[in-house]
């Protein structure tokens, strides 16, 4: 991916990084019952539509350049209050997952609010890709550079148990969307 697009996406991420740094607690915590890392990247104040559009533009530019493999957007609708969302985000921040995502994905963490209680946020974005009726978090969409959803809506909504999945299971699922 070109340096321009990486820099542009980093600028969008700065408010989320600042929120983690000033939240009064660490961005990662291992004080939980599962055996997984945690992260809290979901920022309710982020302009989710702009972040998703920018990631899709970056993926399209990568594909148009012909340099490197196809690039997909991994749009994760989650929440910092949700242990499954924090677990999935934590795995994605590890060096093993970063090596994979840096090469094949642009990860966009989108705050989903509390869809279980009808207090969801940004859910219309997922619905635009055919993933509606979100009642839990996280929900994970794999979108190609042309804006096509690559996983099924059922699969996208099926991540509510992310904290119960093994590192290898999550990695294999992601790897299934790469040209490896």
- The percent range for helix content is 40-55%
Average pLDDT number: 83
CATH superfamily placement: Glutaredoxin
| Adjacency order of strands in the biggest sheet | 2-1-5
Strand count: 5
Q: Calculate the terminal CA-CA distance, rounded to whole Å.
A: 17 Å
Task: Please tell me how large the radius of gyration is.
Answer: 15 Å
CATH architecture classification: 3-Layer(aba) Sandwich
The major β-sheet equals: 3 strands, mixed
N-to-C series of helices and strands: HHEHHEEEHEHH
Shape: globular
Q: What top-tier CATH class fits best?
A: Alpha Beta
Molecular structure report:
By secondary structure, the chain is of the alpha+beta class. It has one domain: 3-Layer(aba) Sandwich (Glutaredoxin), CATH 3.40.30.10. 42% of the residues lie in helices and 13% in strands. The chain has a three-stranded mixed β-sheet with strand order 2-1-5, sandwiched between helices. Strands 3-4 form a two-stranded antiparallel ribbon. Strand 3 and strand 4 (119-120) form a beta hairpin. Helix 1 runs antiparallel to helix 2 (48-65). The model is unreliable at 4-33 (pLDDT under 50).
Summarize the helices and strands and which ones pair or pack.
Elements: H1 3-21, H2 48-65, E1 72-78, H3 83-92, H4 95-104, E2 105-111, E3 113-114, E4 119-120, H5 123-127, E5 139-143, H6 153-157, H7 167-175
Parallel strand pairs: 1-2
Antiparallel strand pairs: 1-5, 3-4
Helix pairs in contact: 1-2
């Amino acid at each position: 991916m070109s340096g321009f697009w990486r820099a542009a996406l980093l600028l969008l991420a700065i408010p989320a990084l600042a929120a983690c740094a000033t939240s009064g607690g660490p961005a990662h915590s291992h004080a939980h019952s599962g055996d997984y890392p945690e992260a809290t990247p979901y920022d309710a104040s982020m302009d989710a539509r702009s972040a998703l559009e920018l990631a899709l533009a970056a993926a399209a530019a990568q594909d148009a350049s012909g340099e490197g493999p196809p690039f997909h957007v991994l749009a994760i609708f989650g929440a910092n209050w949700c242990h499954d969302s924090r677990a999935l985000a934590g795995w994605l921040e590890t060096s093993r997952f970063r090596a994979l995502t840096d090469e094949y994905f642009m990860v966009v963490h989108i705050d989903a609010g509390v869809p279980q209680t009808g207090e969801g946020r940004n859910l219309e974005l997922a619905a635009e890709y055919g993933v509606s009726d979100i009642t839990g978090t996280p929900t994970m969409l794999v979108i190609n550079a042309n804006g096509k959803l690559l996983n099924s809506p059922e699969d996208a909504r099926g991540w509510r148990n992310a904290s119960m999945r093994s590192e290898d299971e999550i990695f294999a699922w992601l790897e299934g969307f790469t040209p490896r």
